[in-house]
Amino acid sequence: MRIVKGNKTVEINEPELNKIIENFPTVVIDLGTGDGRFVYKNALKKHEIFFIGIDPSEKQLQIYSKKAVRKKLINVLFVVSSVEQLPPELRGKADKVYIILPWGTLLQKLVKPDKLALSDVAAILKKGGTLETVLGYSPNLEPSESKRLDLPEINISYLRNETIPAYRGSGLTLMSLNPTEPAYLRKLESTWGKKIGLTQERPLFIMQFTRE
After folding, report:
1. Average pLDDT for 110-118
2. By C-alpha distance, which of 32, 37, 29, 67 is closest to 194?
3. Tens digits of residue pLDDT in 121-156
4. pLDDT, position 143
5. 3-state SS assignment for residue 187
6. Per the structure, how many domains does the chain have?
7. Is the keyword Methyltransferase in the record (predicted)?
């Protein structure tokens, strides 16, 4: 498994990962973490929780990995990977997985559900662990990306009837589905969330699942 430490990339195996996280009762993973702000900021405040940010861009991950090295944080890890190739070392490790405002193919695989991808996401959760997904895009606000990915307009009805059944088929049971307001995004320590949270007309939804 490739991780970013500062401006370097190194490999660790599963025994090494287990050693790193063994003294932390809770592990939280942020899939599609971007620059890693979410895991970095939360690791600063919640020393008893181990945070893992996953993103395919090494360059993006370096931004907050460098800060974590300077702060000598021992409860955060930045992993170079994607939903298509989640490291097997992470299977069954997470008490909670966040996917906050996914973009690109990650968004596509969640909204037009890819059962294989959803099963892989479920697999990194412990049994009884939770998945929280925050969706927020609009064909009106992102016409080119919506067209490129052939994304539908999202609303409660679409998510409940077209999206959620695939999650259930991947071992994820719905706990809640609710619209939310841009103010919620401002509370999240997410760079992308802070940027698009300023757009009042953006539809936003939170889906929470538990792994069976």
Report:
1. 93
2. 37
3. 999 999 999 999 999 887 887 788 888 989 888 899
4. 84
5. helix
6. 2
7. yes
Q: Looking at residues 53-65, what average pLDDT do you find?
A: 97
Host domain of residue 67: 1-89
Round to whole Å and give the CA distance between 5 and 136. Answer: 30
Residue 171 CB contacts under 8 Å (≥ 6 apart), including other chains: 119, 122, 211, 212
CATH number at 176 reads 3.40.50.150
Domain co-membership, 109 together with 134: yes
Q: Are 96 and 85 part of one and the same domain?
A: no
134 and 36 part of one domain: no
Q: Cβ of 129: how many Cβ atoms within 10 Å?
A: 21
Predicted confidence (pLDDT) per residue in 4-19, tens digit: 999 999 999 999 999 9
For residue 47, what are its two tokens? 């020393």
